[in-house]
Design a protein that fits this description.
- With 386 residues, this protein is α/β, with parallel strands linked by helices.
- The protein has 14 helices and eleven strands.
- The protein has one domain: Spore Coat Polysaccharide Biosynthesis Protein SpsA, Chain A.
- 51% of the residues lie in helices and 17% in strands.
- The strands form two sheets. An eight-stranded mixed β-sheet has the order 3-2-1-4-7-6-8-5, with helices on both faces. A three-stranded antiparallel β-sheet has the order 9-10-11.
- β10 and β11 form a beta hairpin.
- The radius of gyration is 21 Å and the shape is globular.
C-alpha cells in the first residue's frame, strides 16, 4: 500500500503549491484593485427600487433593514415581500416605516411560491410593482453605509454596465462558528471574487448585494427565468454577461452578517453553498480546491512529518496571512480579520472540508425545506409544495 501513501503525498504537494501560487495571484489582484482609479461622481441619480425578500425575523433584522432607510439618495423606494402576513418580519418593517414615513415603502404578500426558488418568486412580485430604472436586490442579513445607493448609481453611469455587485466583509455573530464564517468571507471567499474579476471579468453577481437595470432584467427573461435555479445570483450575472452587457464589481464594501448558528448549522450552510456551486459550475468547482493551500499544507505536514514539510507550511502560512492582511484589512477595512487571524488555519480547514463535502450528495436544506439539486444549477423540492 506504499503507492497509496506516495499518491496522497504527491496530491497534497500539488494542491499545496497550487494554493501558494493562488495566494500570490490573489495578493497581486487585491493590490491592483485597491489602486484602481475611482469612478467619477454620477451626473444623474435615477429612481432606484430596493428589493428585499424576507422570511422570518433574523437576529438584528431591524438594524440591518434600517441601514437602507438611511440612504443619502434623493429618489428611492423599498419593496418588501413575505409569504404571509403572520411572518414576524412584517412587524419589524411596520415599525421602520412608522419611524421613516418619508420613505416610500410597500409590503407585498406573495402567498405560497409556485417556483422551486421561493426567493425568486418574491423578487418577481416586487419587480412587478417597482417603479425604478435600477433594481437593487439585497439579502436580509446585509447592511450598508448611507452612500450605498449613490455608489450604485455611479457604477451604472457607464451605459454598457447592465448589472453591479459588491464585495462584502463578514460580520460575526455571538459564537465562534459565526466568527469563523465571517473571517472566511473577509479573507478567503472575496479573494476568489477578486481573482475571477481580474482573470476573466465578472460573469456572476453576489447574493448579498446585486443590482440590475430594469431593461436588462427584461432582456434576459426576467426573474421568472430563474424559477428553478438555486444560485439565482450566479445566473443573474451570467445571463447579463451573455447578453453582451458588463457586470461591474463595485469596491463599495457592504456588511454581510453571519448569525450565531452553532457548528452543525454553520457547517451545513457551507456544504449547501459548495454543493450548489458544484452543480452550477462543475469545472470551476474543481479549481476551487486550489484556494485552500494552507489546509493542504497542514495535512501535508501530518502525512509527512519532516523538516521540508514544516518549511513549506511556514511559507504557505506566511503568504496566507499576508493575503488576509491585504484583503481583509487593507481592502475590506475589517480590523477584526487581523485580530482573529489566529483562527485562519481552523477556518481554512473547515472550508476545505466543506469543499470535499460538496462532492457528496445532491440534497440541501434551505429555509427549513429540503431540495434536490439537478444538473445545470437547477433544483426542486424533495417534498412538493401544496
Amino acid at each position: 500500500m506504499l503507492w497509496i501513501y506516495f499518491a496522497v503525498l504527491i496530491l497534497l504537494g500539488v494542491m499545496t503549491l497550487g494554493g501558494l501560487a493562488y495566494y500570490l495571484l490573489a495578493i497581486d489582484s487585491v493590490r491592483r484593485l485597491r489602486l484602481r482609479k475611482p469612478l467619477p461622481v454620477a451626473q444623474s441619480l435615477p429612481l432606484v427600487s430596493l428589493i428585499k425578500p424576507l422570511c422570518g425575523a433574523d437576529p438584528e433584522l431591524e438594524s440591518h433593514l434600517e441601514s437602507f432607510f438611511r440612504q443619502d439618495y434623493p429618489s428611492f423606494e423599498i419593496l418588501f415581500a413575505v409569504r404571509h402576513i403572520s411572518d414576524p418580519a412584517v412587524q419589524v418593517v411596520n415599525e421602520l416605516t412608522a419611524k421613516y414615513p418619508h420613505i416610500s415603502t410597500q409590503m407585498i404578500l406573495t402567498g405560497e411560491p409556485p417556483y422551486a426558488n421561493a426567493k425568486v418568486f418574491s423578487m418577481e412580485k416586487m419587480a412587478e410593482q417597482s417603479k425604478g430604472e435600477l433594481l437593487v436586490i439585497t439579502d436580509s442579513d446585509a447592511s450598508v453605509a448611507p452612500d450605498y445607493l449613490r455608489d450604485m448609481a455611479r457604477c451604472f453611469a457607464d451605459p454598457t454596465v447592465g448589472a453591479v455587485t459588491n464585495l462584502y466583509r463578514g460580520i460575526a455573530g455571538a459564537d465562534v462558528w459565526s466568527t469563523l464564517e465571517a473571517l472566511g468571507m473577509s479573507t478567503e471567499f472575496m479573494a476568489g471574487v477578486v481573482v475571477a474579476e481580474r482573470l476573466e471579468g465578472m460573469h456572476f453577481t453576489l447574493g448579498p448585494s446585486m443590482a440590475i437595470r430594469a431593461s436588462t432584467l427584461n432582456e434576459i427573461g426576467g426573474f421568472a427565468r430563474m424559477a428553478d435555479y438555486l444560485a439565482d445570483d450566479f445566473v443573474l450575472g451570467q445571463w447579463t454577461a451573455e447578453a453582451g452587457q458588463k457586470v461591474a464589481l463595485s469596491t463599495h464594501i457592504i456588511n454581510h452578517h453571519a448569525t450565531a448558528m452553532g457548528f452543525q448549522k454553520s457547517f451545513t450552510h457551507r456544504v449547501r453553498w459548495n454543493r450548489s456551486s458544484r452543480f452550477s459550475r462543475p469545472s470551476g468547482y474543481l479549481g476551487q480546491g486550489f484556494t485552500y493551500g494552507l489546509a493542504w499544507a497542514i495535512l501535508l505536514l501530518v502525512v509527512a512529518l519532516h523538516w521540508w514539510s514544516g518549511l513549506i507550511l511556514l511559507i504557505v502560512a506566511a503568504v496566507r496571512f499576508w493575503l488576509a492582511y491585504e484583503l481583509g484589512f487593507k481592502l475590506m477595512g475589517d480590523s477584526l480579520a487581523i485580530r482573529n487571524a489566529y483562527l485562519i488555519p481552523l477556518q481554512d480547514l473547515l472550508s476545505a472540508a466543506s469543499w470535499v463535502g460538496g462532492f457528496v450528495g445532491r440534497e440541501v436544506m434551505w429555509r427549513n425545506e429540503r431540495y434536490r439539486l439537478l444538473q445545470g444549477g437547477r433544483f426542486e423540492p424533495v417534498v412538493p409544495r401544496s
